[in-house]
Amino acid sequence: MAIGETVYVNNVREQLLAGRTRLADVLAESESDHVMRLLEEVDSALHRIDHGAFGVCEECLGTVEGERLLENPLARVCLDCLTPKQARALEYDLELAAQIQKGLLPPSDLTVPGWDISYHYQPAGMVSGDYCDLLRENGHLYFIMADVSGKGVAAAMLSSNLRAVFHSLVPLGLPVQELMVRANRLFRESALPTQYATLVLGKASASGDLELANAGHLPALLVGKSGVQTFESMCKPLGYFSDDSVNVATTRMSPNDTLVLYTDGVSEAENERGDEYGVDRLGQLLSSLHSCCTADLVSTCTQQVTAFRGNRERTDDESLLALQYTSPASGNGAHA
Ligand SMILES: [Zn+2]
Hints:
Blueprint: H1 6-29, H2 33-50, H3 66-71, H4 84-103, E1 115-122, E2 130-137, E3 140-148, H5 152-169, H6 176-190, E4 197-204, E5 209-215, E6 220-224, E7 227-231, E8 249-252, E9 258-262, H7 264-267, H8 279-288, H9 294-309, E10 318-325, E11 334-335
Parallel strand pairs: 1-11
Antiparallel strand pairs: 1-10, 2-3, 3-4, 4-5, 5-8, 6-7, 6-9, 9-10
Helix pairs in contact: 1-2, 5-6
The site of zinc ion has 8 residues, from loops.
């Protein structure tokens, strides 16, 4: 990203001004040194924008990394100019965050009777803005695949928040539509105004009955003997939709049908020519793998995407979840 891009800088300026108003409101209600300092930082960033110094490192006058500025418009120095102590602290924090995030994934040895389940979860950096989860409640299997807007720590924090939201809502036994409405409200309360999450939430019963809600996410793919059925998004992303706009699709899975959920790190992987891997190509591959167990299916998909990418760098978090309905009686394990 070129820092000089006017549209980008204008966007940041607007965001900072909006943030400034909120901070000033908070300060008007109660005094806080922390908020006061934050307000000073915002003013300083606005000053830098107005004087053409935004994105210029205050130490070396070089350029502050664009990715970092996207995440934090308040950054004043480039990574090279962080003191060794600051850099070490940053590294340590990130390692810890990565460890915590890993611990929040579904257990790799999760066994769900009647299902064969595998997933792949690969952050682009240390931490991921993807959220992949499985919950068992009242004889139902709930599963979630979500992608929080943005990247890095801010996205990862919000994906952890999303997990907490679903872990508190799912045990209430609400209908899927109500679950989505409540999650949307809770998410909106905790996210920054510019943040959102695309998400697929599914609920499956032991008989193979399936309910799916897709909020702005890539189509869920149901792979069966006769081909691949897609479940497209039916409303805006989480944090953006109105309460009455959630639709829930229903279907029944037959034994050996596999539902595949993924994030754009998979379907929008690009090769060296800039071509996108694409949902169609993924669908075709899945169609040829319909008789495979989920562990083979997931590893074949990720290998194919990696091969497609070639030497092109992976820039997005990559997640893929496959759930195969075996039968009400049998119970294969989950491999991850
Ligand atoms: Zn510098």
